[in-house]
Design brief:
Shape of chain A: flat
Strand content of chain B: under 5%
Order of helices and strands of chain A: HHHH
Shape of chain B: globular
Number of domains of chain A: 1
Oligomer: heterodimer
Largest sheet of chain B: none
Number of domains of chain B: 2
Amino acid sequence: MRTNIYIYIAVMAIVTYLIRMLPLTLIRKKITNKFIRDFLYYVPYATLAAMTFPAILYSTSNVWAATAGFLAALVLAYRGKSLLTVAGSACVVVFILELILH
Amino acid sequence: MNFKEWKLGLKHGIPICLGYFAVSFAFGIQAGSIGLTVFQTFLMSITNVTSAGQFSALGVIAAGSSYFEMACTQLLINMRYLLMSCALSQKVDTRFAFAHRFGMAYGVTDEIFGSSICHPGPLNPFYTYGLMSSAIPGWGIGTLLGIICGNILPENIISALGIAIYGMFVAIIIPTAKVDRRVMTVIIAAMSFSFIFKIVPFLAKVSSGFQIIIITVVIASAAALLFPRTEEEEDAY
């Protein structure tokens, strides 16, 4: 089959936008169901946590360096440091440890 | 007021911008390696703004698979945005015009959503626009530089930048976990489940997008049943 890159890109963009747009626009009122409200409250934490671990361990070229970066991020985030400090420090820890470990 | 919220979002979006830069840079390199042009790659990034979706799309394109297969792949991998969009629908300040929701929908990514939903009080759309204004250019410019000059950055720097996006996830979820033990429990449970999916052979075959959806639905449902919030807590959120 001869394929066109631009059609691929259009298909991707449309599908992804619809997924993002439909709930936001179709659910106009406050949901009154207590279970669903609590469910939605916990959604971001469950999603982001599941996306982070164990994927973070394989996000750099060395598992041990990534583990150290992860721990650094946990400690700094717990101490209430900003997004930039937490993410930046994790990168620096990985960079330094990979220099040493190689 | 709106301008102030926009500026605040812009500022909070800077780490997202840097994290995106690193990830999209890697994306640009990979897109170039399968033969996409600079314009095509940039167009894909600014119309999609989704890391996992775009990386998997390269596989679909390289294999010359059907458009239908492309649609299904994106649907599966990005289905989590459906849940995020539901959560966001409850958070948006209803005093703002309905049309804002179409604009905000474009910015439903893991990070922009995460920062928007954890912003205290009803959500002013301009805060989300601010986040988008700094994050999305990072995604676009990172992609461009990745495909144009991917070879100039040393490998160890690209490797270290790979952890940036996850560092951001940690920074988004941990502060709430610190003050709300139930959220801490949810995070530990979700990470444990995710780890089990990784090591149990037949579960590891489930696509990563689906894994996230299954884990989210199971854990968030269990948490809603086990740890319902009181009225005051809901109002504070």
